Structure formats: structure tokens, C-alpha cells
Fold this sequence. Notes:
The chain has helices spanning 19-32, 51-66, 121-128, and strands at 11-15, 70-73, 77-78, 88-89, 92-95, 112-118, 137-140. The chain is an alpha/beta fold. The chain has a single domain, classed as Aldehyde Dehydrogenase, Chain A, domain 2 (3-Layer(aba) Sandwich). It has a five-stranded mixed β-sheet with strand order 2-5-6-1-7, with helices on both faces. Strands 3-4 form a two-stranded antiparallel sheet. The protein is globular, with a radius of gyration of 15 Å.
Amino acid sequence: MRGQKCSAASRIYVHASISDKFLKALRERAEKMVVGDPREKPVFMGPVMNKSVVEKFIGEVAEAKKGGGVVLTSGDVLNSGIFKTGFYLQPTIIIGLPASNRLFRDELFIPLVVVDKFKTFEETIAKVNDTNYGLTAGIFT
């Protein structure tokens, strides 16, 4: 979930009937992810590439909040202790944004995922296809 590869899921669509249970499980999993030196066994996510990625992350989280999004987990930059000499970000989950928000359509390459609910398969397919980039999306029913 480091978010710096083209196949990193940057958006998730979850059926409304399971959204509460799904979001609880997703949050628990994200909060258990270990960020740190990727050479160490328990570490799931190492640093991002550079300071500009950190700045982009900060800006995107702020934009999500301004657009009505809720940070379900983290949104933090880690920069003290062992994290002083690198560019470390916590996995971040954003909920509550309208499906029209650009964060559902733009490739970000940061450890941030936006989540939206759906009721019908057709509705979800329309949302998934509402991008020029063919972003990776997860659909959970």
C-alpha cells in the first residue's frame, strides 16, 4: 500500500449492505501495517521516494478534508525517531467524498485510498469507468 506503483489500488467501491463491516476490517488492517525499514521482516511499507511525494500526500489529504472527506485512518507523515532520515507516510483511508471528487479519478502514487459505497453493479461500473487512466479499483460485494 505504499502507493507508488501503477497497480496500487487508489479507490475502493463497497456495497452499501456490507460497508460498515468492510470499513471496520479495512481500518483494522491499515492500522496494523508496519511502516519502517523495508529490510526488516515485519515492515509492510517503506519510505516514499522523496519530499515532493510527502508534500503531495499532505496536499491531497487536506483537499480530501476540504471536500467533505473523513480520514478514517491516519493521514500522518512520520518524521521523528527512526523516521527522521526518510520520507515515511502512514497508510491513509478517506471516506465520505462524493464520487465526482477528482481523487476517484486521478492517479496519486501515494499511500492513500478513497472508499465509496454503491447499491447496484451498474452504478459501480459507471464509477469505475469514470476516469481517463483506468485506475486500479477494488469492488467488494
